């Protein structure tokens, strides 16, 4: 019996377990090569965690503390920030520890299943929330007279996103195993589809479709329609070139932001999806000597998306920057009256 798997956020092991023998042979990619890149990989991951956690925390801080930020769109953005921050906390530390620890998984059986549940759930929640934001902005821009999404509907959508994400992860969790090999001093926490190769591939491809291709298509089409709508929008009256300047500048700024949003989403997640697809089609397509290193670099690229979102979805907007500046001014002002900032901040 042979099992070969690499989870979205875990380390890949190839384990051959003959049915007629109790001896276990392990075929590892070149771990020594991976260790040589440890001084470079760990600081990069640490930077992603620091920027991702701090950026998304400040984003949630602004949304929660400012009355002006309490709307449906910002509820979606707040959910995105929460899932991205949770992604940084759960995906990165355990992935690094699992990758560089010679004993494999050292966090116990319960944490094995919990971490392997939370990791993909946060990824899926982020992807689906990005899609919901795109659809919400499409509705607000292309159909401005249409009734906006209510807070109760937004809460229902967010609940559905989390439930759908958990449902998508369920098959993988059912095939996740915590196995201890005491003689070798190794413990693995991996996803194995024993004698179910067709089912595994079907699940992998359907997950790729639902968590990358369809969301990316929806985001692209939504922002494309928004861009077309903004280009067709003409200010009323006979305006001079000088008067149309600010409007054209605003359109260009929005267009650049749209391009960055779609590009960041596509670029950050493309490497890990290509890697997983090649691995599923034929694992020999990936050089075994560099297998673990390539996997970690693809994973790092995917995790960097959690750093991009606070900047692209919030800090490029004047209102978020203004509210954040106000809050820092109020919090650092010595001797200010207790109610000095209540006009803007909910204390």
UniProtKB/TrEMBL annotation:
InterPro entries the record matches: GPCR_Rhodpsn (IPR000276), GPCR_Rhodpsn_7TM (IPR017452), Prolrel_pep_rcpt (IPR001402)
Spans through the membrane: 40-63, 75-101, 113-135, 155-174, 202-226, 254-272, 292-316
Any one of the GO CC terms: neuron projection
Membrane topology: Multi-pass membrane protein
CDD domains xrefs: 7tmA_PrRP_R (cd15394)
Short name of one Pfam family: 7tm_1
Assigned keywords, A-Z: G-protein coupled receptor, Membrane, Receptor, Transducer, Transmembrane, Transmembrane helix
Subcellular location: Membrane
UniProt xrefs under SMART domains: 7TM_GPCR_Srsx
GO molecular function: neuropeptide binding; neuropeptide Y receptor activity
Chief localisation class: membrane
The G-protein coupled receptors family 1 profile domain, residue ranges: 55-313
Coiled coil (UniProt feature): none
Protein name (record): Prolactin releasing hormone receptor 2b
Species this protein is from: Neogobius melanostomus (round goby)
High-level lineage: Eukaryota, Metazoa, Chordata, Craniata, Vertebrata
